[in-house]
Amino acid sequence: MTKCLHALRATLVAGGLALLPGTALAQDAADFAAKFAAAYAYSGYELSFGTGTAADGTITYDGVTVALGGMGELLGSLAIPGPVVVEGVAAKADGGYTATRMVLPDFAMEMEGFGFSVEDLVLEGIDLPAGPDISATEAMRLITGGGTGPITITIEDAPPLTIAATRADIAVTDGADGPVFDTVSSLTGIAMDLSGIEGLELEAGLAILGKTELTGRIDQKASWSLATGRMDIPETAITIDGIGKFNLSLELLGYTAAVLDRIAETQRTLAGVTDPEARAAEELAIGEEMLSAISLGHIALRFEELGLIDALLGFSAEAQGVSKEEAVDSLVLQLPVLLGSSGTVGDAARLAEAADAFLRDPRSLELRVAFDPPFSFALLAAEETPETAPEGMTVTLSANGLNPVPIDLETLPVDEMLDMMMEDGGLEEQLLEDDEAGEETDQAPRSLPRPGADPRG
Fold it and tell me: What are the residue boundaries of the structural domains of the chain, listed by start?
């Protein structure tokens, strides 16, 4: 499915670049199609345009076909019927073309239980180089904006996933170290009906949340310098209405133009490898090479607008037969006991304080992992995974904007804390196990504090 969508994206982008010249001589539909196909060959795509006509700065093709190089037999090709219209076409002095936008017709595709349809697809800010060989920087400048109307995705018998609209824009800033590409993208009006999906765990979860349909949006922001290789992604946010906003942010280093060129070269090389096993082996080998070039500066996961936590607290209270306020009081009293005995590295009291603030008013929670020096992804490709944390790794937890608290993920009792929220007596079972262990070591057993009780006795 991913490869199908990748091929679709390339086709659309390719179509956008298909915008042509503005003079009578420049409006050569065949020349534009050839240059467009050459530009996307950089990434390993095979494009074929149908018959084109040019007039008054507009080129119209009767369709375009896209395939991932060397994978046509395995994945098939994507045929988009016409009209494919490229507007505001103008010839550049170097033999390339620019165009204001490209408009593709509504279309749909199906493959092995997967269905995809899209409406109102538009690509904007097209800059097509003369070619035939292009650089990584030219590849990044091929298109600077675009969007769609409604999208529908189906997978076998599952309810369809619908998206009301998508949008992506790229702003290019030429600095002393070369161009910086700032991207902003969004998928809005996402919806999926879950009322017909069966499964005890899913049904129980939906019952807790009181939902039969999930709605929301996805937003992303990124800044990428091909010269320095730094890619900063401060936002990859998934917002689910009534449940929460989950944002992943990270910093990648070493992702230079040379790496992008190597990835493109790989795609072109793989175009000649049709045997699935040989192709997989080649992809694995080159993937390990790419991992060795890229490193991670930091990664953070942030939760906001947490209706999910509020619902879980309500469920926990109902299971215990108490009010939500009493359930929160109980959890807050239990946390110092649980955290203090877990061996957590850092300030257990501050961690309990942060948890207290969050449970009473669940506004935000952020887990951040930073590396100094940066963590090399080459370690992930090593035959033996290190058993200890990378040198220079720090992990912090921040609740409701309070100062970050250092923690040790290896000893933080995450499972026990979730049990406290999800099960009546979940912590009691843990404490009973500790009591039995205490009897064997002549330690005093502990008891579970009930709502309103002080764990210190």
Answer: 1-157, 175-254, 304-440
Instruction: Please give the distance of CA 360 from its chain centroid, rounded to a whole number.
Output: 30
pLDDT at 449: 36
Helix 200-209, helix 307-320: angle, nearest 10: 100
Signed CA dihedral, 65, 67, 72, 75: sign only: negative
In the predicted structure, residue 413 carries a pLDDT above the cut 80: no
Q: How far apart are CA 435 and CA 429, in angstroms?
A: 10
Tokens of 46: 């095979």
* Location of structure tokens 């002080």: 454
For 227, residues 6+ apart whose C-beta sits below 8 A from its C-beta are 177, 178, 179, 256, 257
Q: For residue 149, what are the contacts with CB-CB under 8 A and spacing of at least 6?
A: 118, 119, 120, 121, 164, 165
Q: Residue 23 in contact with residue 91, Cβ under 8 Å?
A: yes
Q: What is the torsional sign of CA 316, 321, 324, 326? A: negative
For residue 114, which of 158, 76, 80 has the smallest C-alpha distance? Answer: 158
For the stretch 10-42, pLDDT in tens is: 444 444 433 333 343 334 898 888 888 888 888
Half-sphere exposure of 335 (CA within 13 A, CB side): 23
* pTM attached to this predicted model: 0.77
Report pLDDT digits (tens) over 217-267: 999 999 999 999 999 999 999 999 988 899 999 999 999 999 888 888 877
DSSP line for 25-45:
TT--HHHHHHHHHHHHHTTTE
Residue 71 gets which letter from DSSP? -
Residue of 41, 266, 212, 32 lying closest to 130 (CA atoms): 32
Assigned token pair, 304 = 């906001």
CA distance 24 to 10: 29
Give the SS3 label for residue 452. Answer: coil
Q: What's CA 304's distance to the chain center, in Å?
A: 17
Count of CB atoms within 10 A of residue 275's CB?
9
In this structure, the strands spanning 295-304 and 244-253 are antiparallel
